[in-house]
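Predict the 3D structure for this chain.
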Amino acid sequence: MLERLNRAMEHIELHLADDDRPVDVTELARIAGTSEYHLRRMFSALAGMPLSEYVRRRRLTLAGAEVLAARETLLDIAVRYGYGSGEAFARAFRAMHGVGPGEARRTGATLSSQPRMAFRLAVEGNSTMRHRIKEKPAFTVVGPKARVPLVHLGPNQAIMDFVRGVDKPTLERLEALSDQEPQGIVAVCDDLDPSRAEGTELDYYHGVITSAAAPEGASVLAVPAGSWAVFTTSGPAPQAIQELWRDVYTQWFPSNPYRGRPGPEIARIRLSADGTEADAELWLPVEAETRG
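Done. Predicted structure below.
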């Protein structure tokens, strides 16, 4: 997987100066031998930024070198790197480099740089990821729903506030509907931005997995049949769960013949009495990776 991903990175480099054409994610996914959906999520997890942001920063890095070289007009450089006007180029240039292109050229300013990325598998050998593959028929998620921001590290205050507002009788009624794995109250995240950038929004359900009819007025998410990769972890909350998600994308997917597919992410979390430790299961929708 990493070798194919690095071929996709080479393709990006060859097409950074394609005028106003955006990066062809369909072609990148073909080169990487995976789906667009999985490519975007893999890249975000491995690189720590969305694919589109990396391309933007690489283009502005190369544009910066050409601005300082002063062999072409600023407008010609702007158009080559995908900006329709000098004003749009200047705004993007200043956002990355902290100085406008005209001033950078006049003063020979020091500019920022986005290095070219390549991916390598770091073998640590000191941990084993506990997982299983589960085939599930169609089911529904039933429970209160809120639109919240994505937080990669540390507590998600929006989710914490939302969950505190769900009363105990509601939770008891929901638990009575739970009739399949993962059992009991679960946390379900759906409709995430493909970039998975910090602060982007998602739908959060605090509910149950069921085949039963939902109560009137309840929020419902219908989930089709498919394969799920189930991972388990124990440790400090919420770090253990957040680190598990990171490790799945940076270690498990590159080493196993599966890729992510569209669908919700489900976490079954059981906290210790003081709320500092957690036992958790993470359910991710997957499909067999095609080999070509």
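The beta strands are 131-136, 139-142, 145-149, 186-190, 201-210, 220-223, 226-236, 258-260, 265-271, 277-288.
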